[in-house]
Amino acid sequence: MTGVEFLRLTDVHAFYGESHILHGVDLQVNRGEVVTLLGRNGAGRTTTLKSILGLVGRRTGSIMVNGREAIDLPPHRIAQLGIGYCPEERGIFASLTCEENLLLPPAVASGGMSVGEIYTMFPNLKERAASPGMRLSGGEQQMLAVARILRTGARLLLLDEISEGLAPVIVQALGRAIRMLREKGLTIVMVEQNFRFAQTVADRHYVMEHGRIVDMVANEDLAASMDRLHDYLGV
Fold first, then answer.
1. Model confidence pLDDT, tens digit, residues 104-125
2. pLDDT of amino acid 144
3. What pLDDT is attached to residue 233?
4. Do the bridges between strand 5-16 and strand 68-69 make them parallel or antiparallel, or are there none, so unpaired?
5. CA 166, CA 143: separation in Å to the nearest integer?
6. What's the pLDDT at 2?
7. Is the pLDDT of residue 68 over 90?
8. 3-state secondary structure of 113
9. Which residues lie across from 118 on neighbouring strands?
10. Please, are residues 144 and 123 in contact by the beta-carbon 8 Å criterion?
């Protein structure tokens, strides 16, 4: 791997109460890379994203974000290192309009996308700008959840299962957006269950089992690694 490191997890353990979820996670992501976390449900992928942001009960080890140690920082300070998080549950405010939802998160750094740029990337949201969040389709809500963090100036995006349950046309639109964001130099870590979608956008894939990274596959090596991945994922 070459490039400038943006994120590194070293021997990260994470706990919810007495439950020990992550057991020494090690991974590295370079600036401008798109990396997926693959694995079965319960493997620890979402907990890995939440650990980066400090949204777990307790965590140990080292989490370096753009050269800064973040393991002892509170979540709002970690976000200010330039991280945007799109949770699996989306978190759209039902009573606010699409545009009000879009404008809600505060900037964490300069250089965020303008509303106009976001509407160019997601034309559906421009059409629904005045619609309440509760009136948006699932696909439109997912687009909004991704778009909302692009305004903040975040340079590292953590995306949790953004393709889940969506129509193929929406998944394709999200894929186009991710490729555009990579071209803009953003760094993206995605938890993904849709293997076919993952391979259209990612540079590398980390495989998780039982709270650990058990393998890493470069996207160009996927075809040669399918038997191995089938054993891990049942795909």
1. 988 888 889 999 999 999 999 9
2. 96
3. 79
4. unpaired
5. 11
6. 56
7. yes
8. coil
9. none
10. no
By the 8 A CB rule, do 151 and 112 touch? yes
The two beta strands, 19-30 and 5-16, are antiparallel
In the three-class reduction of DSSP (H, G, I as helix; E, B as strand; rest coil), residue 223 is classed as helix
Report the DSSP beta bridge partners of residue 188.
34, 157
203's CB contacts (< 8 A; 6+ apart) are 33, 34, 35, 218, 219
Measured between alpha carbons, how far is 54 from 69 in angstroms, rounded to an integer?
Answer: 12
- Model pTM score: 0.94
CA 203/CA 217 separation, integer angstroms: 9
The CA–CA distances, whole Å, from 182 to 46, 89, 130, 143, 208 equal 21, 24, 29, 17, 23
CA-nearest of 7, 32, 36 to 183 is 32
Q: Is 19 exposed, middle or buried (0-12, 13-18, 19+ CB in 10 A)?
A: exposed
Burial class, 199, CB count within 10 angstroms (exposed 0-12 / middle 13-18 / buried 19+): middle
